[in-house]
Amino acid sequence: MTPPRYLLAIETSCDETAAAVITHDRHVLSNVVASQTDLHLRYGGVVPEIASRAHVQAILPVVKEALAKANVTLKDLEAVAVATRPGLVGSLLIGLTAAKSLAWGLGIPLVAIDHLQAHIYACQLATQQPLYPCVGFVVSGGHTNLYHCPTPITFNPLGGTIDDAAGEAFDKVAQILNLGYPGGPVIEAAAIHGDSHAVQFPQAFLHEDRLDFSFSGLKTAVLYAAHGTPGARAVPPPLNTQRIADLAASFQRAVIEVLVAKSVAAMHQTGETRLAVGGGVAANKAFRTSLSSAATRHGFEVFFAPLDLCTDNAAMGGLGWEYIDARQFSPLDLDVTPGLVRVSTDHR
Ligand code: KG4
Ligand code: ZN
Fold it and tell me: pLDDT tens for residues 254-269?
C-alpha cells in the first residue's frame, strides 16, 4: 500500500480564514473555517481592511488546528496550495504569504489555485463520478459566473454578472428588509412563509440568449416595494412580517428563475451533460430543488457542492492536487491576482 500523501490548502480570498488537509485520493481530513461574519455584521457587508487584519490574527491558529485535526505534522506535507485569485487583495495576500512561508521553510512546492475553480471543484469532492468536462456555475457573494470547464484547472467564461452577484443581492435585500447578515440564509428562512408570486420583480436578461446576469435593478425594485418609490404618491403596504416574507419569497423566486434559465441555456449552448454548482448561493434549498427538476426535464446531470463546502472553505483547495498532478507549481515570488481572470490559460 502506498503511503498517504498530504496537501495543506489555505483560503483567505474574502472574509473566511480557512485551512484544510486533503489526501491525494481526495479525502478531506480536516476543514477548519474561522468566519469573520460577526466582525462585518454591523456594516452589512465585508469591510476589506477589517478582513485583512482578522486574517492576520487567524491564519496561524487555523493552520495549526487543520494539521492537528488531520493528525499530521508540517513534515508530512507534500505541498501547500493557496487561493491567489480572485478576491480582496489584502485578504489574498495574507493567505499567500503564509503559504509561501510554509513552502519555503519546508522546502515543498507552492501551488496557486483559482478560488472560482475551487468552488466548482467542491462538487467533484462529493462524487466518485468524473465531473469534467462540465459547465461550472459559481453563485456566491462575489460572483455569478458560468464557465465551460474542460478540466478541473482550465475554464472558459460563458457569462457572468454585469453588476451585483446573486449572493450580494441576497445580502442587500436582507438589509432592505431588516433581516440581518449574511442575507442568503435569512431570506431563505423568511421566504418559506411568503407568497413567491406576491410581487413580480424584474428578471434581467431572462428571455435573452446571452449568459449574463444583472441583479442591481431587482435590488432597487425590492427597495421601492418595501419602502416606497421616491416621488410616488402611493404608500407601500406596511412592512409587517407577512409583507417581508412575501417580498423575500418573490425576490428569491426572481433570482432563482434567472439562475435556472441561464444554467439550462449554458447546457444547451455548450452541449455538455454535467453541471457543477458551487458558491454560497448553491446552499439555497429552493434553488437546488428548482435546478434539479430543470436538469431532469432538460436531460442533464446537476452536481451541487456539499452544503458545508458551498460557502468559502479550504477543503475545495483539494483542487491543488490537480495542479500538482499536472506538474503546475508556482514560484515563490508569485503575486495575487485580485481581479477576475477572464481567460482559461494558466496565469501563474
Ligand atoms: O461563496 P461565499 O462564501 O463567498 C464568496 O466567495 O463570495 O458566498 C457567500 C454568499 C453570501 O452572499 C450569502 O448571502 C450567500 O452566499 N448565501 C446564500 C445562502 N447561504 C449563503 N444565498 C442564498 N441562500 C442561502 N441559503
Ligand atoms: Zn467564494
Answer: 999 999 999 999 999 9
Region of 190 (left: φ > 0; alpha: ψ -120 to 50; beta: rest) is: alpha
CA of 227 to the centre of ligand 1 (A): 25
Query: What φ, ψ does residue 198 adopt, rounded to 5°?
Result: -60, -40
Answer whether residue 343 shows pLDDT above 70: no
Instruction: Enter the pTM of the model.
Output: 0.94
pLDDT tens sequence across 126-135? 999 999 999 9
Q: Alpha-carbon distance 246 to 230, whole Å?
A: 21
**Residues with a beta carbon under 5 angstroms from ion ligand 2:** 140, 312
The rounded Å distance from CA 140 to ligand 1 centre is: 5
Q: 243 C-alpha to center of ligand 2: Å?
A: 31
Q: Give me the mean pLDDT over the 1-8 stretch.
A: 91
Task: Give the residues surrounding ligand 1 with Cβ less than 6 Å away.
Answer: 14, 140-142, 167-168, 170-171, 182-185, 188, 279-281, 283-284, 311-312
Question: Same topology for domains 6-120+310-325 and 130-304, yes or no?
Answer: yes
| pLDDT level of residue 113 (50, 70, 90 thresholds) | very high
- CATH code of the region 6-120+310-325: 3.30.420.40
Identify the pLDDT of residue 37.
86
CA–CA distances in Å: residue 23 to residues 85, 236, 319: 23, 56, 11
